[in-house]
Q: What sequence folds into this?
């Protein structure tokens, strides 16, 4: 039994390339005192990974060449020297891009045994938690608010929009392509959707948010952020969750030229990092699980089969080829 | 006795010009039932006036051609049909650019009889209140915080910085010219000052705020805002009070390209309009007055003599020729 791993091979320039990673084979680790070995069955693909590959210290230390690529995953304990986590326990954690990982129990979340791993990875995973804390703690939704979500068909945006609906808000999503927009409105219950590839976003935002935007949940940055800033309601909250339009660009990018509308609208723009909420993850997960089990949260996973396809799955994520959560499912080599 | 008035003559393009205003003479108004006539002795010059001259509705209705130029002032009641405000009462209000104004008592603030009008206009006026509410409500200073203030030698910045010192913060000011910087450090007690005309702001901000900026109180926008955003401490608050570098520019201005650092620093950027705090002005004024009388707030006024020099005083304000509050003192024609 071998352990395949993807190591960081090069710092990305522009869009991530498959050659930025190197596939190697090693031995499966053995459980030490107090630790477990996890077979990672699903790998989470997230826009933030692009930043982790760069040589800058933001909120996590930069990876060195030859490090196992960083990333979240879910799987099953296959060897255990911990009484807490017997063999067969389903867990999530930051395992990196490898098929088998040695882990300490305190760094793992135990997943519900009766839910598919892929569901746990999307709704109850980091992206679901990002939506939960970003919307509730930073966005502070109130019934009747108009909420605009960009990247709305992605793993975070699709949950954030539904949570806003549950909180009594009117929700407009922005996504790329008719299929995604139909999914938002007809499956997830968004009040409206804007197809940024086919429609004029500025016109549509004005039309669909005539009284202004109370909460803008931003996953993309760029021009859409500027359009949102131009259409804020009084006392609006702009939640900076991500900026996927920026991540693969090189050189200096323009800032939001309409930022000064924060003054005229007495509005706030605020960033956050979900990892700060780690002490409250259990609270967020149980709230999300309750909504899920009550049938109030729909979700989709785009699953790419085969561990060796992790690099191309990340590229596909940046190309917007996912509906909902982008995952890779490990298959035995 | 005539009443001189400046009317809006043209929308400004670029820097305000004297020809944007027209000086006319009319009759001094007469007090009607319940109203008073105020002789305006001091006129407040404020960067926001530039926006009031434009044809866009932000937070105040745009002026029409031929309207008396909008602006705050202070003076004395010279005729009264209101029992509340007898002749001789010193008051402040939005009188516009005219020597005599008819006013309703409920729109006026009664000023302390024992303080010079110019002092009331600076520390206790709109700019002092802007500093008070902007720093305390939006900035939320905590002892030990590092506070960076731009436009620090202006009417608002100079008070905001001192209030931050009073709140137990370390305060660094940015201003143009050695004289202003010396005033900040040696007269007002700022911990340090940066002369943006002679020093490299980026280098100095890094040197003087090595642990990052907890509160950035922004009066200028532009490149300095970007430098501040690049140097935020965790959970920083960016108070967007003004953006004087923008007001006289035409066309599209770049936004703050470092806005995404709000995410990495879990920081917030928030705008406000002091007029929203009108119901709390009395509270703010009495707090400021207490600090002033206790000798904890220093202030300066740059007074230009002569009503007819109002337009040039506004231009001088945009050129940064003021130390502290820019005022025009009416002199009889």
A:
């Amino acid at each position: 039994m071998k352990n395949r791993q993807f190591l960081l091979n090069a710092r990305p320039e522009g869009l991530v390339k498959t050659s930025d990673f190197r596939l190697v084979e090693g031995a499966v680790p053995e459980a030490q005192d107090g630790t477990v070995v996890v077979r990672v069955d699903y790998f989470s693909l997230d826009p933030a990974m692009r930043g982790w590959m760069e040589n800058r210290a933001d909120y996590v230390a930069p990876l060195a060449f030859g490090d196992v690529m960083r990333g979240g995953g879910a799987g099953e304990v296959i060897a255990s020297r911990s009484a807490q986590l017997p063999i067969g326990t389903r867990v999530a954690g930051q395992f990196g891009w490898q098929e088998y990982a040695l882990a300490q129990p305190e760094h793992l979340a135990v997943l519900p045994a009766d839910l598919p791993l892929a569901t746990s990875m999307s709704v109850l995973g980091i992206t679901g938690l990002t939506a939960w804390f970003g919307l509730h703690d930073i966005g502070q939704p109130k019934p009747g608010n108009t909420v605009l979500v960009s990247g709305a068909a992605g793993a975070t945006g699709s949950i954030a929009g539904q949570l806003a609906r549950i909180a009594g808000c009117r929700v407009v999503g922005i996504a790329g392509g008719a299929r995604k927009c139909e999914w938002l409105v007809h499956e997830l219950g968004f009040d409206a959707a804007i197809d940024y590839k086919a429609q004029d976003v500025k016109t549509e935002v004005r039309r669909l948010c005539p009284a202004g935007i109370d909460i803008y949940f931003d996953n993309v940055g760029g021009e859409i952020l500027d359009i949102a800033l131009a259409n804020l309601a009084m006392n609006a909250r702009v939640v900076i969750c991500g900026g996927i339009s920026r991540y693969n660009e090189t050189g200096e990018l323009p800032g939001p030229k309409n930022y000064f509308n924060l003054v005229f609208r007495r509005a706030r723009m605020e960033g956050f990092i979900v990892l700060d909420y780690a002490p409250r993850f259990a609270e967020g997960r149980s709230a999300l699980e309750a909504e899920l089990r009550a049938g109030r949260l729909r979700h989709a996973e785009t699953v790419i089969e085969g561990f060796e396809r992790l690099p191309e799955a990340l590229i596909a994520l940046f190309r917007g080829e996912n509906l909902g959560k982008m995952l890779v499912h490990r298959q035995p080599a």
